[in-house]
Amino acid sequence: MPTLGTIEGFFGRPYGWTERTELMRFLAPHGYSFYLYAPKADAWLRRRWREPHPAEEMEQLSTFGAACREAGVRFGVGLSPFELHFGFTADAKSALADKLAALDAAGCEWLAILFDDMRGDLADLAGRQAEIVAFASERTRASRLSVCPTYYTDDPLLDRVFGPRPASYLKDLGAALDPAIDLMWTGEEVCPREFSPGHLDRVALEMGRKPFLWDNYPVNDGPRMSRHLHLRAFTGRPAAIAPHIAGHAVNPASQATLSAIPMLTLAVSYAHGDAYAYGQAFREAALVVCGPYLAAMLAADLALLQDAGVGDLSGERRDRLRARYAAYDHPAAREVVGWLDGAYAITGEQIQTQ
User: What is the DSSP string of 287-308?
Assistant: First the structure.
């Protein structure tokens, strides 16, 4: 079993503090040993990172950190210093030092510096980012430090959106960072179908260390993906990859309770190895999360919820589906109803502005 945990790093409406705490506590006995708080909607960790968090938000963050420690889960925060590599001035350094001190005060034990979702078409990008990370590592009290590169996948989508990646970027960044610092990687695509030992070994050679997986399943935060509930068990993550990675962080779906179903199956996949059966793993995880009645409903409706999606449901079928789940008093059922009602829909504007 690799180091396994949660990275709450999706766009759209973030979890409420109660949802977040309940998911963390539920997953802890199943091998999820860390929780990185990094929702895209927390502007004070992203576009407004230079500003201090409101006092109430920081108090809630500290309370969540204490709950993590009580559950034996390492509490971490993902900080996205938006486009700081374009101007690491004295004022910017002061703002970053203040932010790190605030996160220390909140009990942050694992700091992730996230350079994703921002422009990166600079020839010396790796060097600039390494300077920022070195500055942060000298000031944070966090015992573990991770970095998400701007180009965190082979997927050419990033080059189209954020500019062409600099030549040898990943190799240069890895060479400039302390070997003890994790480098995050989502795979051959932003949302990969699978990870293979061969691919991971190639990336490790470039990084100069084993990649730390940021796994974008069951996340469903895109304008198209938010129309689907990602409930099926994990596949394409065989236990054989464990020796080839530094850790495995799961980016959950917008629905906290329903996310626990596939997340449980990943732990089962690592534990069972070649004996893993994804269909059985789904049924058993749904039973644990939802109980027998609701688990049977989800299994029966899986093709509608995950494959067809809300956009392909006729009005009559959608109404029948909604009535069935609305009659059941369980947080997972309420998440299905909210999804059918559009409560979790993600817009292109949210992707551009969060």
Answer: HHHH-HHHHHHHHHTHIIIIII
Distance CA 199, CA 281 (A): 26
Question: Cα 312 to chain center, whole Å?
Answer: 27
**Cβ burial, residue 55 (10 Å; 0-12/13-18/19+):** exposed
Burial state string for 186-209 with b = 16 or more CB within 10 A and e = fewer than 16: bbeebbbeebbeebbeebbebbeb
Q: Residue 314: which residues within 8 A CB-CB, separation 6 or more?
A: none
Q: What whole-number distance in Å separates Cα of residue 268 and Cα of residue 59? A: 35
Q: How far is CA 315 from CA 303, 306, 307, 320, 321, in A?
A: 17, 17, 17, 9, 10
Render pLDDT for 175-224 as a digit per residue (tens, 0 to 9).
Answer: 999 999 999 999 999 999 999 999 999 999 999 999 999 999 999 998 99
Q: What is the pLDDT of residues 18-32, one digit of tens each?
A: 999 999 999 999 999
Question: Token pair for residue 229?
Answer: 């509930």
Query: What is the residue extent of each domain of the chain?
Result: 4-283
Q: Rounded to whole angstroms, how far apart are CA atoms 174 and 156?
A: 20
- Cα pseudo-dihedral 84, 85, 89, 95, rounded to 10: 30
Among 180, 187, 215, residue whose Cα is nearest residue 203: 187
Q: What is the pLDDT of residue 354?
A: 84
Which fold does the domain 4-283 belong to in CATH?
TIM Barrel (3.20.20)
Which residue has 């369980």 as its token pair? 330
Contact 226, 254 (CB under 8 A): yes
